[in-house]
């Protein structure tokens, strides 16, 4: 029976993410009147990773915001499994997690309260995300008492709460110490093992084995 | 829907932690209202006639105070990007912010308006009319204020621009609300004015969040 076969497949790999082929074709972006980049094309398969390289102001953050659907592309298309992704931005938001330059941490809320709004999957509890980033003992502490690195880790914990296959990371290692970078490396590897994809902008070497590189000028 | 409620809950929790902000609005409301007896004299007849108008103008100005932080804080710390990517439509985010603004500003003003109006010697039959009109009135102000706050988001000196944008738009609310009070004082029917106020609210309820949502998307670009 094909139905039961499909069911056993799902049971065998319950954590598998529903990733798809991501294709960017001739993307261009404007900031006001200024052309930031044009002719950006790349392809990313499930389990893949892409590093955005380039000097300051080359448009790495702009490209990430464009891929997230926060910024409308000036030209070009973004395809997700062959279908234009940015047409329905609410549906596209389900496929991605975006970690921006800023940590989006509310100082007045505790570490755990900061994550509560983003915890929507019963199988991805806040406690597990905090544990993975070594924040468990700080869970009840107001976020204003955190150091910059701890705040960055709190922002990274949001990645673990989401079931989205595509992670868009803008300088994820900002302010992190060596141990935290190792933890991030383990997170990224586990995500890619499940079929997840990572696109990261960075200046520093990132623990991403076998990542393709895209140079922006 | 649960996401919308979660966002409202998060905003309420934040404003509870920043309780001084709501207190500042209420103190401003009282202080501004209490300047009038000092300025125009304590004659009960004059004050009583002016009381609904004074309460309304003070409520309007007080409701403007928290608007520039309504989206400003989220915009600066990157939370707005996360909200726009949370799967909620931008208009729903604006609606949640409107609800949070009304619950933390409109509702406290509504509760404080009674005591202030009594202090200003409002006529006994004018008080229920004033309070009844304040319910749709403050809701309309929250809707207008949210739209205004979203539109000036990211603009230089947005805090100065905001009253210039919102106050003219709030004029119809002010006119119909205070004419209801005048009608009550003259013994004329209040109902038409009240219904016009509700019509403004019905007009703004879908339009203001849509406009604010589009402005939020533009600000995030």
TrEMBL record, chain A:
GO terms for molecular function: ATP binding; ATP hydrolysis activity; transmembrane transporter activity. Residues 22-216 form the ABC transporter domain. Keywords: ATP-binding, Cytochrome c-type biogenesis, Membrane, Nucleotide-binding, Translocase, Transport. It holds the Pfam family ABC_tran. It comes from the Bacteria. GO terms for biological process: cytochrome complex assembly. The keyword Nucleotide-binding applies. PANTHER family: ABC TRANSPORTER I FAMILY MEMBER 1. This is Heme ABC exporter ATP-binding protein CcmA. It comes from Acidicaldus sp. The lineage of its organism: Bacteria, Pseudomonadati, Pseudomonadota, Alphaproteobacteria, Acetobacterales. The gene is ccmA.
From TrEMBL, chain B:
GO terms for cellular component: plasma membrane. It is a multi-pass membrane protein. The keyword Lipid metabolism does not apply. It comes from the Bacteria. GO terms for molecular function: heme transmembrane transporter activity. Pfam families: CcmB. GO terms for biological process: cytochrome c biosynthetic process; cytochrome complex assembly. Its main location: membrane. The chain crosses the membrane at residues 20-41, 53-71, 129-153, 160-188, 194-216. It is found in: Cell inner membrane. InterPro entries: Cyt_c_biogenesis_CcmB, Cyt_c_CcmB_bac. Keywords: Cell inner membrane, Cell membrane, Cytochrome c-type biogenesis, Membrane, Transmembrane, Transmembrane helix, Transport. Required for the export of heme to the periplasm for the biogenesis of c-type cytochromes. Belongs to the CcmB/CycW/HelB family. This is Heme exporter protein B. It comes from Acidicaldus sp. The gene is ccmB.
